[in-house]
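hi! just following up on the protien thing from before. the input was this:
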Amino acid sequence: MLQSRTRWRCAEVSEHKAEQLAAEAGISPLLAKLLIVRGIEDGDGVQRFLYDDLEAVHDPYLLAGMKEAVERIHRAVEQKEHIRIYGDYDADGVSSTSLMVFVMRELGAHFDYYIPHRANEGYGLNNAALDLAKDQGVSLIITVDTGISAVEQIAYAKQLGIDVVVTDHHEPPALLPEAYTLVNPKLPTCSYPFKGLAGVGVAFKLAHALLGKVPAHLLEIAAIGTVADLMPLVGENRVIVREALKRMKRTSYPGIQALLDIGGVDCNQLVATNIAFSMAPRINASGRLAHAELAVKLLIADDLAEAKILAEELDSLNKERQKIVDLTVKEAEKQMAAKMEANGGEVPSVIVLANEEWNVGVIGIVASKLVDRYYRPTFILGIDSEKGLCKGSARSIDGFDLYGAMTACADLFEHYGGHHAAAGMTIAFDKLEELEQKMQLIAESQLTPEHFVPCTDVDAVCTLKEVPLQVIDELSHLEPFGMGNPQPRIVIRDASIQDKRTMGKEGQHLKLMLSQDRATLDAVAFQRGELADIISPLAQVDVLGELSVNEWNGSRRPQLMLKDIRINHVQLIDLRGTKESVVAAVELARKLESLGRGPVAWLTTPEEATVYAGETFVRWTSMADGQPTDDAKIQDLIISSIPDHPSVWEQWANRFSHVERIHVILNRRPSEKEVRPPARERIIPAFAACKQLGTWLNDDGTRVSLARKSGLSPREWEYLMDVFAELGFVTFSEHAAGGTYEIVEKPQKASLESSEHYKRWDTISRWESLWNEAASEQLAERLLSLWDNKKSQQVSTA
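and the predicted 3d structure came back as:
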C-alpha cells in the first residue's frame, strides 16, 4: 500500500453527456468532460470559453456608478482639477494605479498618485493622507482596488471638500461609504454580468468607459493584477489574460520587459503562471519591504535602461523577502510546537500566532506556508507594542469561510476585510486571546476531522488510451490556467509499472513508465525520489497528475506531471540477491525512519539483531522477542532472514496485518544451506552409505563429510537422519561428543512418506525454494494472499 497525500475529490460527469458535447462541439470526450466540470454544457458555451476575444467584453456602463464616475472625471480633466489616484500596495493595487496613470496621461489630466505605506499607514484610505491631499489642492480622488469599506475616511474627505470616486472589487460591507460614486461589480445594486473582476479589472472597465473603446494597449497591466490577486480566470478575466499574454510576448512596456528578463522567463513559452510566480512576487516585494511606489515606477517607465535598474532593485527586495519569510516561518514553527505541547500534541482547529518582531509585509505568505504545513485556518500577526495593536493576515482551508467567521466576531477588530479564503485585519493586542477562543468555537462547530485532510480536486478519471498526444495538445485550448480554471488534473487507476527510476544528481526526482492495456505514459514526480524505495515494480497504482508534452531533441511525447500516487494493496518489494543483505536491511530501515515512515519492523536472526542493538527503529528477531509499542503503526516490514516455517509466516501476517509494504532483502543462497525436496534417488544412496558405515559420530566434521559424499547439504543430512531415526532405520545415542548414530540391521518396513520429519523436510524445501527461486510475481502472490486474507478478516469483523 501507499497512502495518498490528499483526499482526491473526483468530479462526476456523465459519459453520455460528455460524448454528446464532444460530438456537438467537435472536440475529444476528455476535453468535453473538463469543460462540463467548468460548467460549460453546450456548443455555444464551448465556443465562448475557448475562443472569445475582446469583442466579447461587456459594456462598462453596465457597472452601477460608472456613468457618474466618467462624468465627474471628465469634468475634472476639463477644469484642470488636481486628481489623485489612490491605490494599494499589493500587485493588484500597483497595477491598478499604473493603469490609471496611463489613462490620465491619455486624457491630459492634471494628476498624481498615492499609495499608503504598508507598515506606517496600513491598508486603504486614512485621514492623514486625506489631509495631505487637501493641502496639495486635490479636489478629486479616484480609488483603485480599495475604498469600499472606508466609510469614516470618505466622510472626512467630504468634510474637506474632496470628492471620492471609489473603484473596488472587495466584498462590500453592510454600511457603504457616501462617496461621490461607487463602482464595484459586487455591490448588491449592481447588475454587471461578471462579478469576478480584480481591482485592476474594474480600473480597466473605467478606462474603457473614459476612452470610449476597449483599451487593448492596457491589457498587459490589467493581466498582472488579475493573476496576482488570484481572480478566477473565467469570463472577462479569461479574455483579458489570454489576450494580454499574446501581447506580452512582444511587449512594448519597458517595465514588463525588464520583469520578464530578471525572472528569466522565456517569452516564447509565456503562460499565466509566469505572472503568478515570477512577476507578481517581485512587484509585491516593494510593498512588503519598502514602498509600492517603486513597482509603480517600474510599470510606468518609458525607458528600458531605467526599467532594468528598477527591476533589479525589486529582485533584490524579493530575495530579502524570501529570507525574512524563511526566518519568520521557523519562529512560527517554534510557537506552534509550544501550542501543540500545551494541547496534548494536537494541532488546534485554528492557528493564531503573533510576534513583535514579525514584518507585517510578509505575514500573509507565512500564513499560507503554515496552512500548507498544518492545514488549519491560520492567523499570523505582527505586534506594535507602542500602539497596543496587531496587524495580521489570515488564510483559510476548504470548507471554512474566513470572512464569514470574522464577521461573526466583528466587534473584536479595529478593521478587517477579505473573502472566504484570505483576509487582513487590525486588532487590539489584548483581544488576541478572545479572537483565538472564538475562532476555535466557530471552527469546531463547522469543521469535521475530514476537513483537516487536504483535498485535491480531480477533473476526470481516464485510462491511458484516452490521453494520446493529440488529446494533450487539444487541452492547451483551455489556457490560460489559474484560479477558477486550474490546469486539469486527471486520475488514472490501476496502471502497472513498466519501469521505475530516479533522476537528478542525488536521485531526488522519480520517473515511472506506466502501462495499461498496451498503452504507456511517462510520469514524473519532482522532489519525490524517496518514493522509489517504497513502490514495488509489481504494484498496481492510481496516479493523479497534470498532462503535458515532453519535447526533447525534436521528439514530442505525452507525459504526466505526477502530483500524488496511491497503492491500494499490500506491496512486496523484492530485493533478493542483495549483497550484504543485513547491512542493506539496516540502511533501508534508517532511511525509512529518516523520511518519517517509521516505526519499521525488521525480522531477522538473533545474531544479526545483536550487532545493531543500538538502532532506534523498531525490530524483532522472532515472535517471542520484544513487544512493540503499537503494531498498528508499522507501515514497513523488512525481512532479511527466511521465516523458519509457513506457520511462522502466518503468525507474522496475523501480528502485522496493518503493514503496507514488505521488503524482502536476502543474500544469494549459499549451497551449504540448500534444502532440496527429499527425492528417493538421493536418499537411497545415502542409506547405502550409512549401512556400509554401520556406526558414525554426529560431530560437525563427520556431518559435513558424510553429507558431501552423499550429495546432500549439511542441513539435508540432518533432516535425513531425523527421518531415519523416526522410521527406525537408525538409532541415536547422545553423549558429550555430539552423539552416535548406528544402523539398524533389520528395520521394519516403513514408507518414507509416512515420516513426519520427511513431510517437514518436504515442506521446508518447498517453502525455502519459494523464497529463493520463485519469480517476484509468484513470491508476491503466495505471501501477500495471506496478508490480504488477514485484512479481509479484519474488515469482516470490524
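The radius of gyration is 36 Å.
The mean pLDDT is 91.
cheers
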